[in-house]
């Protein structure tokens, strides 16, 4: 049992929670989330999970009261945590607008058309990984890749009759390899900064674990294959007859890639693509835009404006009469992202409260004590990253916390900062997309249209990368040492 002096913090009268009390909100959350999935299945993310997080946050507040943390402190912590997620929420809204205008403009149709022309079902998943990896490496954003090219590839898979869950796993596998290996990635920069590593040395060390993981993932998707007798000719003929499949529909995609390479923020990049989609829709498909406006009394220019405005706000509704095509094109709008935003807000508020109460520090302390060997130390970083992603619900916090908390332990073992930053990137970054209530998991599920629990078994890169980094740790591979113990 800790003494009162050990439990009492140096500032204020707040006490450090005992392990038993620290576990109460966590167990509450686990039980409620499990119950939500048992009762509601895939619909759990549409409200029940948010209620579970809210109830667990209330339990955490009660634990905070017991340990003399004031309501004002916990409220401020929750608001600060939610504030860190605001950029992600705006990106989500931008993606909703982009999907709506790309569906209306024919950009999605053009991507599906050329995807059907160029990709065979026999190596589709394999190719998806390569395409997403290459683009993410260039632009440094898994979110942008999933919200643009990923959406088109999901549409191609739908038309081919292939598994949406496997396709989503392939998109994530490629997108996260490129994201964590790119100097343009905010997650990559954050991992290196949190661990005190130099950026390009961090990326070089990351490739030692990321490339083998990518090769294993490619082998996994190649073996899955998708052999069949799919004949795309009738569908491609229908698409070419009803839509422009030439260069112009790809302008919004080119705009997104160009703005990303110019290092504009993801929000501005994706909104630029959405606006470009609206302009292309007005140019190529004015009839569809007028139909969407559904207001014959409006002047023609205002009707065009109303149509694309509606697509950005509420999504596109396709009325071609072809069921498969209407399913592909009836989607998007900022409105479609509101449930996901609700989930992220709930998770961030919970994460901020348990961090303020000291629950995270208390839960990670035994992990640090058990990390006596290099292999155990790396495994502890992975475990801490997993726990932070599960409990805090935000990728950035899950990257920063282990990076900061393990610095002294790595210095004591004379391990270079790049070893820590690599372990953090190999775990915190990729695991985030596998947690349904994490901002990344919620975003990917909403964007790709596949529940997190459904694509999780097929997100090969995300599942294997933490394992590979632990193998390196236990085998002693690339455990770079400093010449002498580093001082704090």
Low-confidence stretches: 1-11
Please identify the structural class as seen in this structure.
mainly alpha
Report, as a whole number of angstroms, the end-to-end distance: 30 Å
**Largest β-sheet summary:** none
Query: How many E strands?
Result: 0
Which helices and strands, and how do they pair?
Blueprint: H1 4-7, H2 19-40, H3 48-66, H4 71-105, H5 107-118, H6 124-139, H7 142-160, H8 164-180, H9 186-195, H10 199-224, H11 233-242, H12 251-261, H13 266-284, H14 286-293, H15 300-314, H16 323-329, H17 338-357, H18 359-370, H19 374-392, H20 395-405, H21 407-412, H22 417-431, H23 439-448, H24 452-455, H25 460-475
Helix pairs in contact: 2-3, 2-18, 3-17, 4-13, 4-15, 4-17, 5-7, 5-11, 6-7, 6-8, 6-10, 7-8, 7-23, 8-10, 9-20, 9-22, 10-22, 10-25, 12-13, 13-14, 13-15, 14-15, 17-23, 18-19, 19-20, 19-22, 19-25, 20-22, 22-25
């Amino acid at each position: 049992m800790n003494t009162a002096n050990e439990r009492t913090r140096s500032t204020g009268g707040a006490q450090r929670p005992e392990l038993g009390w620290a576990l109460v909100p966590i167990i509450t959350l686990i039980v409620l989330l499990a119950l939500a999935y048992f009762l509601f299945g895939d619909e759990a993310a549409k409200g029940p999970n948010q209620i579970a997080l809210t109830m667990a946050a209330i339990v955490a507040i009660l634990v905070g009261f017991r340990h003399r943390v004031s309501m004002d402190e916990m409220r401020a912590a929750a608001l600060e945590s939610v504030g860190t997620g605001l950029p992600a929420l705006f990106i989500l809204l931008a993606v909703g607008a982009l999907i709506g205008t790309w569906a209306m403009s024919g950009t999605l149709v053009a991507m599906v058309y050329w995807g059907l022309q160029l990709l065979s079902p026999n190596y589709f998943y394999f190719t998806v990984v390569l395409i997403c990896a290459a683009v993410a490496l260039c632009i440094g954003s898994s979110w942008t890749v999933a919200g643009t090219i990923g959406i088109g590839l999901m549409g191609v898979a739908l038309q081919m009759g292939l598994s949406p869950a496997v396709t989503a796993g392939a998109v994530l596998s490629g997108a996260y390899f490129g994201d964590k290996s790119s100097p343009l990635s905010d997650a990559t920069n954050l991992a290196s900064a949190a661990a005190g590593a130099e950026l390009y040395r961090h990326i070089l060390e990351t490739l030692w674990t990321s490339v083998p993981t990518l090769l294993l993932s490619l082998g996994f998707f190649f073996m899955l294959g998708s052999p069949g007798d799919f004949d795309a000719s009738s569908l491609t003929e229908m698409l070419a007859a009803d839509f422009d499949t030439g260069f112009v529909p790809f302008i919004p995609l080119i705009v997104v890639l160009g703005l990303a390479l110019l290092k504009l923020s993801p929000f501005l990049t994706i909104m630029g693509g959405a606006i470009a989609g609206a302009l292309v829709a007005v140019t190529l498909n004015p009839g569809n835009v007028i139909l969407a406006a559904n207001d014959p009394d409006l002047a023609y220019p205002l009707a065009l404006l109303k149509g694309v405005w509606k697509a950005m706000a509420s999504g596109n509704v396709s009325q071609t009469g072809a069921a498969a095509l209407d399913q592909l094109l009836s989607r998007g709008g900022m409105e479609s992202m509101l449930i996901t935003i609700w989930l992220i807000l709930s998770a961030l508020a919970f994460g901020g409260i348990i961090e303020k109460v000291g629950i995270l520090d208390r839960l990670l302390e035994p992990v640090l004590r058990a990390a006596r060997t290099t292999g155990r130390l790396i495994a502890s970083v992975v475990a801490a990253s997993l726990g932070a992603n599960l409990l805090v619900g935000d990728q950035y916090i899950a990257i920063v916390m282990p990076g900061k908390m393990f610095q002294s332990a790595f210095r004591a073992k004379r391990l270079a900062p790049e070893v820590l930053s690599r372990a953090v990137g190999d775990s915190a970054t990729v695991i985030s997309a596998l947690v349904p209530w994490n901002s990344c998991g919620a975003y990917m599920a909403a964007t790709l249209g596949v529940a997190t629990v459904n694509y999780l078994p097929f997100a090969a890169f995300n599942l294997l990368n933490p394992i590979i980094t632990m193998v390196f740790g236990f085998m002693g591979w690339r455990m770079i040492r400093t010449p002498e113990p580093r001082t704090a």
